């Protein structure tokens, strides 16, 4: 029996298992679907859509090419990717999962990157956004805004380390480029931007419409994955498969001298970040240091839910998923190690004692209230924004179908 046959049988049995589980546990599946939908409806859609639309416009107008030429002397030596990778990195950091993959795939489609460069870039530009780390996890789950500094440092420094490691990926496959004499960098950047804008012959209205349509299509796909993995996580718990798998996880935790109480939260976090982080924060009889280590790993690994979203986005290009998956393991381990190393000097010695260096962030306890207010504001206006976006998408889709029939 070859690998292809085994893969077919495995996929068929897995899908059948999920289908029967939905029939056996309809109420739990429905409630899990609602939880996933609520996260997408309130937070994911409204927070990601503006970044997706703006990025499409920036690519169309040639601004990304302009940034790429300027950042080439920095990004190429450090990470062996073009300067446009700096744009992807910044946008991915600001907007969160899976924006880095979306922007990388888009640049690959525009032939701004080679396949190897895209695999390097996507490996370290997918990260959790700061609002989620500080508001949802630090304030919402741990009720400790100061913890966000430690989690964010571990997470983003871990991403940089992954980028430095992945610079060696595909070194043998990559063809060496000849060094060409170029004009002064600023002049070259403006010239590249102008040429890119002229090559994209779409008028502004068409460009904006395509940006909105493509962005909402991607977000609909992301919403489906969030709901699917929310249901899957619930089903695994109901059939006690989570407990069985957690036994194996507890053995692995023992190797790193971590309490086995964290095995179930860690396993849940391997599937979905939010649930895993929430369970970790609520675990009793476990020190805060151990909770931070597990949470940092969960954030770095990103969860199978996010990885499935990325795999779906990358499938539209020739970018392989395997390097991204390997990078997520590296990121999880490095972020967990950094959380352990930085816990005492950053959190206990400085944040925990409210030393002046961090005073602007926490004066009169304003950090917790501000972070939580931002999160509540997003979840309150998010559904209205999402509803407007979906209505706009339906209108645009019907218009496109009408034009296709006419033509």
TrEMBL record:
Keywords recorded for this protein, A-Z: Membrane, Transmembrane, Transmembrane helix
Residues of the Nucleoside transporter/FeoB GTPase Gate domain: 43-139, 219-315
Keyword Transmembrane helix: yes
Matching InterPro entries: Gate_dom, Spore_IM_YlbJ
Residue intervals passing through the bilayer: 9-28, 48-71, 131-157, 211-231, 238-258, 292-313, 325-343, 381-399
NCBIfam families cross-referenced by the UniProt entry: spore_ylbJ (TIGR02871)
Protein name: Sporulation integral membrane protein YlbJ
UniProt KW Transmembrane keyword: yes
